[in-house]
Amino acid sequence: MTRQVQSLNLGGATAWILHRPHATVQSLSRQLGAIGLRVESAWPEPTADILAADFVFFDADMGYDEQFPWDRGHNPMPLIALIGSEAPGRIEWALSAGADAQLLKPIGDGGVYSALLIARATFGARQSLLAEVSHLNTRLNARQTVVQAVTLLVARGQSEKQAYEQLRQMAMAWRVTLEVAAERIVVSRAAGAPDICQGGGTDD
Amino acid sequence: MKKRTITLGLLYSRTGTYSLITEACRIGVMQAIAEVNADPDYDMCFRTIERDPGGNADAYGALCEELLQEDDVRHVFGCVTSWSRKEVIPVLEKTGGTLWYSVPYEGFEASDRVVYGHACPNQHLLPLMDWVFGQVGKRGYLTGSNYIWGWEMNRLAREVILARGGEVLGERYLPLGRVDVERVIEEIRVTRPNFVLNSLIGPSQYAFLEAYAALGREDPHFTAATCPVLSCNLTECELPAIPAGCTEGLVAAGPYFRGETGWPKAVTEFGSSHEAASWAAVHNLARLLNGIDDSEKMSLAELLEGPAAAQTGIDPVNHHKSLPSLIAQVENDRFVTRARYARRAGDPYLANGRDVGQPQSARLKVVK
């Protein structure tokens, strides 16, 4: 997987800062404003508007799970941890909360821009990995169905190789995945439906 | 008005490869200081303390700290490279000082302690690319010095060229100070681009321009009408270092070229945009300080909340100056303006996108 760091489209993005009123919030807001983002801050718990944020900065020192209106690890946007105490317990919590990048406190004059880009790239990479895993899991779960479908086709008097090839052809004709085609065959046989293997099926 | 004395720090390398640029900046600063000191409407006199890092980037941090701590200076004028600026910023943060930086740079920075008085890419590179695409085409060759200026300029140029459907035919860097430009010239000769974006600095740029002029004498494609050389960092102050005729047709972007009007209260015309921007920086500071008790002890952020801030054109959030964007071409060893894009706020992170609008009163011809 290539990670292209895009500098595009930060202008007009919204960042939320979950941190008690503090110089940290001021420095961070100043940098975010200079980069072109709109800034909201809240402590301890944000309004539901935070769900529309493009980035969320959270306090790793005093933060807790219930602050986030999403299930742990299912943050819908990149998260950046604001770390003061580098105690392993707090870092562990920040990671479990889903931190994609971090900034060390006190926040000085720099660091925010790279944290934004790194968080976005890390978040994007994780999202596409999760999508890939979900896709692979679906295919893995369908293994038994594929075997059943091939067996059904073999029962019509062809070799295993021919049956698999026919299944592949049907999937292509129906413009569905192999697993979906297999499921259709198995379901239609189980329901005693007419033999869909003869008719070519529909495009759906 | 009774005048108080305020000490300014100067942190310029007066020797080494940047000395032409440094001197241009320093001339602008000194002229403005003389004007402020002579002007009864200002309640201050500026005096200066200088430290000379001698072109050694690693010396800037320590010398800046000396100015800010031992000499109790709050405002420093200096640095002409991104490298030295980045060395100085941690010191400014620690001591609460302000750096007035008045040369073009590559953007992606907005320190709370720096005023960026010259152009960043939405003020130089983007208008220049827009202009050259309309004049000669979108097939470009990119070269630059092997450090942050060259890298970032070429990265953005590549992005803009590809987004507009153009093509990058080659990209090559030269280490700082190196003059072996043969390979770059050879690649340009073979790929025959519509333009060469040159972000080389110092002797590397001088050597390149000389070699490119020679290539143009061999093959007329490599002349301004069909393949101009572009720059966002070359100004009048460096022309004396380049053999006569070798810059002819070069197209540069900048907020000022000699002879331009529109800069406020210029007593004489400036030698270059480096001089103009440095001159303006001192006047901006004088305005921010003027008429406020103890203003010499205030931070930049506090000064920019004052009543005079809006007149300076310094953005109170990102500290970049609003500047004109001019495209000029060398004709008989001086820059002649070809196009003017509207004055624009500095947008160091390109938060407002890449669109530069139309040039205003353009004399759209490329002169050989």
Automatic annotation (TrEMBL), chain A:
InterPro entries xrefs: AmiR_N (IPR049021), ANTAR (IPR005561), CheY-like_superfamily (IPR011006), Sig_transdc_resp-reg_antiterm (IPR008327), WH-like_DNA-bd_sf (IPR036388)
Ranges where the ANTAR domain occurs: 126-186
SMART domains: ANTAR (SM01012)
GO molecular function annotations of the record: RNA binding
A Pfam family reported for this protein in Swiss-Prot or TrEMBL: ANTAR
Coiled coil: none
Protein name (Swiss-Prot/TrEMBL): Two-component response regulator, AmiR/NasT family, consists of REC and RNA-binding antiterminator (ANTAR) domains
Organism: Celeribacter neptunius
From TrEMBL, chain B:
Annotated region (Disordered), positions in chain: 348-368
Pfam families xrefs: Peripla_BP_5
Signal peptide as annotated in the record: none
InterPro entries linked to this entry: Peripla_BP_I (IPR028082)
Name this polypeptide is given: Amino acid/amide ABC transporter substrate-binding protein, HAAT family (TC 3.A.1.4.-)
